[in-house]
Design a protein that fits this description.
11 helices, rod-shaped, alpha+beta, seven-stranded mixed beta sheet
């Protein structure tokens, strides 16, 4: 929080003019505040073309003020100290800076003066040979984007979701990149949502596999149903996926429908396509959640039915065994005067009677499906 208190004392520069001098109360422009391992790429773009490499974000902003264009600075998991100089250089709001450094934010879109602060949740599908009760299906990260009139700052958290390939694709399309920072913001949003679509397809395969296991006939001797832990774990991963997708619906709707000074009108049209794709993914994820609920209930119902079948078999055999138990118990009593005890064929008759009654009960229970 010390960095936040320092930033509150900063007199933020006006970025309305290219040659407007920058004055900070606690920031020394001659010092290299921004040279850190957190900066993964730093460049200035003018007319859709990447200019000469910039060593630091401070140098990039000087070039922007002198010759126009915009700066695109990429960072990966910066600390407060590493981000302090960049935040002061570009006049970023302390609350947005705090969110960008500490992460763990919901997807959102906020406006601070002349800067848009956008938070995306990145989703990566974790490959696995077999889905178990402890399998990790999706891995989440975070991507924050500060979009100004002449700069874009991306802050990435997590090991996945690199923007290097996206940057190269944009550099191969100067006409789109010439639209400025809003074109970069759109490409990032489109890149994130395309990742959602790919993950949704992979998760669908996992759900199909579990569904087949639940409703397919089990092998002889194996119990019906599957491990409920597998279904529950998959449901938890889908809920994590849902938490990344659902909150982003409103920000994409705002970017696609509400006129914004920092968003080029030509680029705003493209946000509608991103919002449409996001809505489709959201419908898929909601469907996944409901389908997994049904699969889990069906699996539990099958387990209950299997237990009932086992209990019926046990009860049936207990009924059969009860016949000889009762008869033998009667004839095992030690009374002197009992009928049939002195019959010559009494033993054979009793055994035969027991066998006939047991066979009759067995046939009756089998006919009714209890055995």
């Amino acid at each position: 929080m010390s960095m936040i208190r320092d930033l509150r004392a900063v007199v933020r520069p006006s970025l309305r003019g290219k040659n407007t001098p920058t004055v900070y109360a606690n920031y020394d422009a001659t010092r290299d505040h921004s040279s850190s391992s957190a900066v993964v790429d730093c460049a200035v773009y003018r007319d859709g073309r990447r200019m000469k490499e910039c060593a630091t974000p401070h140098e990039a902003m000087i070039r922007v003020r002198e010759s126009g264009g915009f700066a695109w600075i990429g960072l990966h998991e910066p600390t407060e100290a590493e981000f302090a100089g960049i935040a002061a250089e570009f006049g970023l709001h302390p609350l947005a800076v705090e969110d960008a450094v500490h992460a763990h934010q919901r997807p959102k879109l906020e406006r601070y003066d002349d800067t848009l602060f956008t938070v995306f949740k990145t989703i990566h599908y974790v490959e696995h040979d077999e889905l178990t009760a402890t399998s990790e299906v999706v891995e989440t990260g975070e991507l924050m984007c500060f979009t100004g009139r002449n700069f874009v700052i991306t802050v990435r958290h997590g090991g996945k979701g690199s923007l290097r390939a996206l940057r190269h694709r944009l550099q191969d399309d100067p006409e789109l990149l010439s639209k400025g920072p809003s074109a970069v913001l759109h490409s990032i949003a489109d890149h994130v949502v395309d990742g959602y679509i790919a993950v949704a397809s992979a998760v669908q395969d996992d759900i199909d596999e579990v569904e087949i296991d639940v409703f397919s006939a089990p092998a002889k001797g194996s119990p019906k149903g599957v491990d409920a832990g597998r279904i529950y774990q998959l449901k938890r991963e889908v809920l994590e996926f849902k938490r990344a997708v659902a909150p982003l619906l409103r920000p994409m709707q705002q970017l696609s429908e509400r006129p914004m000074r920092l968003i080029d009108p030509d680029i705003q049209k493209y946000f509608r396509d991103v919002a449409d794709h996001l809505a489709r993914v959201h419908e898929q994820v909601v469907g996944f959640d409901e389908l997994l609920n049904s699969i889990l209930q069906a699996n539990l119902a099958q387990a209950t039915v299997s237990q009932n079948e086992d209990m019926r078999k046990i009860t049936s055999w207990a009924a059969i065994v009860a016949v000889p138990t009762m008869i033998c118990g009667v004839y095992g009593m030690n009374f002197d005067h009992m009928p049939e005890t002195h019959w010559k064929y009494g033993y054979a008759i009793v055994l035969g009677g027991i066998a006939v009654v047991c066979l009759a009960i067995h046939r009756l229970l089998k006919r009714n499906g209890w055995l």
